Task: inverse folding
C-alpha cells in the first residue's frame, strides 16, 4: 500500500524547494547590476536561469559588502564576466583597498623622522614657485636623475636649500620624497636637530650604531634644518661626519636644508662645537663632503608659516 504520509512530506518538501528557488531567482533577476549585465551581453531570461548559481553568488556577495558584512575575501568586490554563454564571477580589489595599498606602499617608501605627517601630502604640482624657480627646476632635474641612476652612472647631486624660516625648504624636500616614491624610490627625511637629540638619548642603550647604519645606507637621505642646534664633537664627527663620509664614498644622493648658507654653515656652525672649541679643519672636511653631495640653492619669498 502506498505510504500517503511519506508522499505528502515529499510533496511539501518539493513545494518548499520550488518556492525557495523562485524567491532566489526573483532576487537575482531584480538586481539592477544583473539586469544591466544581461542587457549589455544580450542574454535572455533563459540564459540567466541557466547561470543562476553564479548570478546568485554575485548578488549575495555584493549585498553583503554593501551592508558592511564580512565576505570571504575582504577588500575584493565581485564582478560578472561572460565566458562564451557561461557567466563567471571574478573578484577584484575595491578602490578603497587599492588606495590603502598605495598608502601603505608610500609610507614604506617615505620615512619621515620627527616631521609632521601632513608632509606626506606635499606635492610639486601644488608648489607655489614664486621666488623659488631655481630650486624647483633643480628638484625636477634631481628626480629625473634619480630615476635614471640605475641605468646611468651619473651621480645625482642633491640640493642644499638655504633660506630663512618659513620659505618652504622642508616642504620642497617632502615634495621631492613623495615624487620619488611614485617611482618606487625610497627616501628618508630627517629633522636633523631632533635626530641629534634622539641619538644622544640612544647612547646609553647602544642603539646609535643601528640608527647610523640606517641613515648612512638609505637610497635617498634628506637632512632637514641642519645648523638649527649646536652639535657636540661626537655628533659632528662620529654621527654627521660618518654619515656624510659613507654617502660620499658610495655616491648616495643626499639633500639638505638649512637657515645657513654653505659658507656660514662651515664658518659659524661646523667650526665650533657646543663647548666653543674651534676646529676649522674638521669643518672644512665636513663641508667638502656636503659640497660633493649637494649644490647650494637659495630659497626666497615670503614666510609662509607666519605671513605678514
Ligand atoms: P621652512 O622649512 O623653510 O622653514 P616650511 O617648508 O616648513 O618652511 O614651510 C612653511 C609652511 O608653509 C608650512 O606649513 C608648509 O606646509 C607651507 N608651504 C611651504 N611651501 C609651500 C608651497 N610651495 N605650497 C604650499 N604650502 C607651502
Ligand atoms: Mg623647515
Result:
Amino acid at each position: 500500500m502506498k505510504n500517503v504520509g511519506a508522499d505528502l512530506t515529499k510533496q511539501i518538501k518539493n513545494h518548499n524547494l520550488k518556492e525557495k528557488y523562485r524567491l532566489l531567482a526573483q532576487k537575482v533577476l531584480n538586481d539592477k547590476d544583473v539586469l544591466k549585465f544581461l542587457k549589455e551581453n544580450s542574454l535572455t531570461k533563459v540564459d540567466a536561469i541557466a547561470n543562476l548559481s553564479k548570478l546568485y553568488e554575485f548578488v549575495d556577495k555584493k549585498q553583503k559588502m554593501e551592508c558592511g558584512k564580512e565576505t570571504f575575501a575582504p577588500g575584493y568586490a565581485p564582478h560578472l564576466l561572460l565566458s562564451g554563454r557561461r557567466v563567471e564571477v571574478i573578484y577584484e580589489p575595491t578602490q578603497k583597498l587599492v588606495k590603502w595599498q598605495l598608502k601603505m606602499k608610500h609610507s614604506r617608501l617615505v620615512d619621515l623622522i620627527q616631521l609632521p605627517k601632513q608632509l606626506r601630502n606635499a606635492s610639486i604640482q601644488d608648489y607655489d614657485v614664486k621666488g623659488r624657480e631655481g630650486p624647483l627646476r633643480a628638484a625636477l632635474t634631481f628626480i629625473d636623475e634619480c630615476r635614471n641612476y640605475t641605468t646611468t652612472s651619473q651621480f645625482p647631486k642633491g640640493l642644499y636649500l638655504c633660506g630663512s624660516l618659513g620659505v618652504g625648504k622642508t616642504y620642497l624636500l617632502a615634495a621631492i620624497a613623495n615624487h620619488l616614491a611614485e617611482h618606487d624610490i625610497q627616501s628618508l627625511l630627517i629633522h636633523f636637530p631632533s635626530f641629534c637629540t634622539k641619538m644622544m638619548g640612544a647612547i646609553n642603550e647602544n642603539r646609535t650604531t643601528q640608527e647610523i647604519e640606517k641613515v648612512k645606507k638609505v637610497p635617498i637621505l634628506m637632512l632637514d634644518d641642519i645648523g638649527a642646534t649646536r652639535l657636540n664633537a661626537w655628533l659632528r664627527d662620529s654621527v654627521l661626519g660618518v654619515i656624510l663620509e659613507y654617502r660620499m664614498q658610495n655616491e648616495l644622493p643626499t639633500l639638505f636644508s638649512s637657515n645657513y648658507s654653505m659658507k656660514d654653515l662651515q664658518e659659524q656652525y661646523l667650526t665650533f662645537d657646543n663647548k666653543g672649541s674651534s676646529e676649522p679643519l674638521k669643518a672644512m672636511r665636513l663641508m667638502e663632503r656636503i659640497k660633493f653631495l649637494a649644490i647650494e640653492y637659495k630659497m626666497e619669498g615670503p614666510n609662509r608659516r607666519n605671513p605678514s
